[in-house]
Amino acid sequence: MPELPEVETTVRGLARVLQGERIARVMVNRADLRRPFPPDLVQVLTGAHVTALARRAKYGLIHTDRAMTMVFHLGMSGRWRIDPKAIEKHDHLVIETGAGLRLALNDARRFGSVDLVETSALESFGPFAVMGPEPLGDAFTPAHIKAALAGRTAPIKQMLLDQRIVAGLGNIYVCEALYRARIRPDKAAGRISKPALERLVPAIKQVLTESIAAGGSTIRDYAQPSGELGYFAASWSVYGREGEPCPCGGKVARFVQGGRSTFWCPACQK
DNA sequence: CCCTCGCCCTGCTGGC
DNA sequence: TGCCAGCAGGGCGAGG
After folding, report:
1. Which site among A31, A46, A207, A255 is 20 to 30 Å from A70 CA-CA?
2. What residues are paired with A93 via a beta bridge?
3. How far apart are CA A199 and CA A242, in angstroms?
4. pTM metric for this prediction
5. CA-to-C1' distance for A158 and B7, Å?
6. Which of A58, A102, A184, A199 does the annotation list as catalytic?
7. Residue nearest to nucleotide B10 (CA to C1')
8. Same domain, A155 and A97
9. In Å, how far are A40, A122, A126 from A115, measured between CA atoms?
10. What is the pLDDT along chain A (270 residues), one digit of tens a residue?
């Protein structure tokens, strides 16, 4: 499940093989994921040079010298396969570099997306236009989140998944950050105390930073582009651990919030 | 505007 | 062994 650390890991992996390279060939095996691919995708990318790779929230950005940026989202099951031995089912898009290296965008569940955006207009690209700050950036502070959550009655768990509040968190890291900050997932967002928010912001930054350092988490269909596996999943305190003991003596519980599983420790999250 | 809910998609798991 | 319901969930639109 690619969230911010997994996308960051992916982008870093792609940069190693794509930065400065020319895109020699583009093959489309199935021209739609969540949405149809841009009709001019092959034309724009073929022959372009990759100038830089970047990430915004859970989106990867491939900047080219044609003033266009390819924006990809990995959805639930997306991953880039670098130098695959063979093209496999769900390799929807395949890029071949001038050096002869192939890169395949594989997405079994097809929740991902591929868009082309004018590089100068990236900030007004639909999803980016209303997005909150990067959680690892300087703009993400207790003061920001306090203002963004003021008066909100929805549970803090759901608010942290809202990319307009803070951009890049998904189910796993929200559960882990709330656990670290000792905040109940179902507490009304606008009623979280200032000290708790002052714990929450560094908790989010720390869990993301630690995961990036570990190469992300791996579950089923996520892998780093290199084929190596991220090992942060071994560090989860609550996610996927229903019924297991918490070091505080309590037991990890699960309930469904907004159609998604929330994992938490009722003994330490108040 | 705020909030909740259901849908999209496919592969894997567990129960019988 | 085979079948099938249930589950995973980010983003987005519908509806209250």
Report:
1. A207
2. A28, A105
3. 24
4. 0.93
5. 18
6. A58
7. A109
8. no
9. 10, 11, 11
10. 688 998 998 898 899 899 999 999 999 998 888 889 999 999 999 999 999 999 999 999 999 999 999 999 998 888 898 888 888 888 999 999 999 999 999 998 888 999 999 999 999 998 899 999 999 999 999 999 999 999 999 999 999 999 999 999 999 999 999 999 999 999 999 999 999 999 999 999 999 999 888 877 753 333 455 444 556 777 889 998 998 999 999 999 999 898 899 999 999 999
| Domain boundaries, position A207 | 142-264
- The distance in angstroms from the start CA to the end CA of chain A is 28
Q: Which nucleotides of B are covered by protein (CB under 7 A)?
A: 2-12
Give me the sheet containing A23-28, strands edge to edge: A23-28, A91-97, A102-107, A78-82
- A95, A129, A163 - which closes a domain: A129
The yes-or-no answer on residue A2 being catalytic is yes
* Structural domain count, chain A: 2
Q: Based on the residue annotation, tell me whether A3 is a catalytic residue of this protein.
A: yes
For the segment 63-122 of chain A, residues whose CB is within 7 A of strand B: 76, 89-90, 108-111
Do A125 and A31 lie in one domain? The reply is yes
Please tell me the distance from the alpha carbon of residue A17 to that of residue A60, in angstroms, as a whole number: 15
| Tokens (6 digits) for A87 | 């093209």
Q: Does any strand C atom come closer than 7 Å to the Cβ of A242?
A: no
Q: Is the CB of A152 under 7 A from strand B?
A: yes
Q: What is the CATH number of the domain that holds A84?
A: 3.20.190.10
- A53/A108 same-domain check: yes
Q: Which of A105, A129, A153 is the last residue of a domain?
A: A129
Here the tokens at position A113 are: 């997306």
Q: Do A168 and A212 sit in the same domain of this protein? A: yes
Strand B within 7 Å of which CB atoms in A 35-74? Answer: none
